[in-house]
UniProtKB/TrEMBL annotation:
Protein name: GTPase
Annotated organism of origin: Pseudomonas xantholysinigenes
Domain CobW C-terminal: 229-323
Enzyme class: hydrolase
Family according to the record: Belongs to the SIMIBI class G3E GTPase family. ZNG1 subfamily.
Record has Chaperone as a keyword: yes
Length: 330
C-alpha cells in the first residue's frame, strides 16, 4: 500500500504574502520534492508565463519541485498529479495547495474527506493561514477572512516589521480569541523554517488539542465589532455517557454543522479505560479510541469548538447533560 502524500493548504487574504512564501518554498535548497498547486486568482503567479493558459499545466522546477497551475476543478488537478506521478513523469512526496485570497478553505479540506480514492492517496496535514499585520483590522471585518483564521492549524503573521508592536500584540490576542487551537508564528518576507509549515498533523486523530490554557489577556485594541468566529473550550472531570454523547453530537451537527468550522475533543467515557478522540470540519468528523489513561492522571474531557456565530449556551447546556455533574468552560 502506498504512503499517502501529506497536503498543506495555504490560505490568507489578498496581499498577505502567500505567493512570496510559495516562491521561497520552491526556490529553497531544502532537498524536498514539493508539488504546489496554485490557481489563476493568486495576486502574482509563480510562473504564469511559463505555465500558459491551459486549464491544468504542470512543470518541474530546477530544484525538483513541481508547479501545477489550475484554471478549473481542484479534483481534476489532484488526479492529474497522481497520474503523472504513477507514470514516472514527475516526482513529489508533499503537496501544497494555495487558495485564492477570497476563497473559503472548507471545500478544499472537504475534498480530502469525501473522495475515497483521493483519501487513500493524499492525507490532509494542515491548513496554514497568512495574516497581514498591517491590514488585518480591515481584512477581519469580512467573514471570509475570519473563516480563514478559524480553519487554520497554524497562523503566520506577515509584515510585522511595518506595524507598531502594540498593534501586533493586539492582533495576536484577537487571533487567539478567534482560533484558540492555532499556533501563531511570524514570517519575514516569505521566509520561515519549513518545519513550521510541514508535518503539522492538524487533522490526525490524536490527543493533542493544541489549545492555550492561559487566560485571555485584555485586548489592547478592541475590534470595532465582535468577531463572528470564536473558540469555545469545555471541560469536565466527570465521565461522559457515550450514548448521550452520540446524541449530542448528532443534534449539534444537524442544527449547526455548517457553522462548526473546526472541532476536536479528548474524552473520558464512563466504563472505558481508553481516551476517545474525535475531530471534524463542518459536518464531516471522525473518532477513534486512543491510549489508556495512566495511573494518577487526571481523566478530564476537553472539547474545543471553533465556529461561526457560535451557539455557546446551547452547546454548554448540551454538554452538561452528558454527565450528572456540572461542566466548566473557558
Amino acid at each position: 500500500m502506498q504512503t499517502p502524500i501529506p497536503v498543506t493548504v495555504l490560505t490568507g487574504f489578498l496581499g498577505a504574502g502567500k505567493t512570496t512564501l510559495l516562491k521561497h518554498m520552491l526556490k529553497a535548497e531544502h532537498g524536498l520534492k514539493i508539488a504546489v498547486i496554485e490557481n489563476e486568482f493568486s495576486e502574482a503567479g509563480i510562473d504564469s508565463q511559463l505555465l500558459g493558459d491551459e486549464p491544468v499545466q504542470v512543470m518541474t522546477l530546477a530544484n525538483g519541485c513541481v508547479c501545477c497551475s489550475i484554471h478549473g476543478d481542484l479534483t481534476r488537478a489532484l488526479y492529474l498529479l497522481l497520474e503523472r506521478l504513477d507514470a514516472g513523469e514527475i516526482a513529489f512526496d508533499r503537496l501544497v495547495i494555495e487558495c485564492t485570497g477570497l476563497a473559503d478553505p472548507a471545500p478544499v479540506a472537504q475534498t480530502f474527506f469525501i473522495d475515497e480514492e483521493l483519501r487513500e492517496r493524499y492525507i490532509l496535514d494542515g491548513i496554514i493561514t497568512l495574516v497581514d499585520a498591517v491590514h488585518a483590522e480591515l481584512h477581519l471585518t469580512q467573514a471570509i477572512a475570519q473563516a480563514q483564521v478559524g480553519f487554520a492549524d497554524r497562523l503566520l503573521l506577515s509584515k510585522t516589521d511595518l506595524a507598531e508592536p502594540e498593534v501586533v500584540e493586539a492582533l495576536r490576542e484577537r487571533l487567539a480569541r478567534i482560533n484558540g487551537r492555532a499556533a501563531i508564528r511570524v514570517v519575514e518576507h516569505g521566509r520561515i523554517d519549513l518545519a513550521e509549515l510541514l508535518d503539522v498533523r492538524g487533522f490526525n486523530l490524536n490527543p493533542e488539542l493544541g489549545i492555550s490554557l492561559k487566560p485571555a489577556l485584555r485586548p489592547l485594541l478592541k475590534p470595532a465589532t465582535p468577531d463572528r468566529i470564536s473558540t469555545l473550550v469545555l471541560r469536565t472531570e466527570t465521565p461522559l455517557d457515550i450514548d448521550r454523547l452520540s446524541d449530542f453530537m448528532n443534534e449539534l451537527l444537524e442544527e449547526h454543522g455548517k457553522q462548526l468550522l473546526r472541532y476536536k475533543g479528548v474524552l473520558n467515557i464512563a466504563g472505558e479505560e481508553r481516551r476517545l478522540v474525535f475531530q471534524g470540519v463542518l459536518k464531516l468528523y471522525g473518532f477513534d479510541w486512543d491510549a489508556e489513561w495512566q495511573d494518577g492522571e487526571t481523566r478530564e474531557s476537553v472539547m474545543v469548538f471553533i465556529a461561526d456565530e457560535l451557539p455557546e449556551e446551547e452547546i454548554r447546556t448540551g454538554f452538561e447533560a452528558l454527565s450528572c455533574e456540572g461542566v466548566r468552560s473557558i
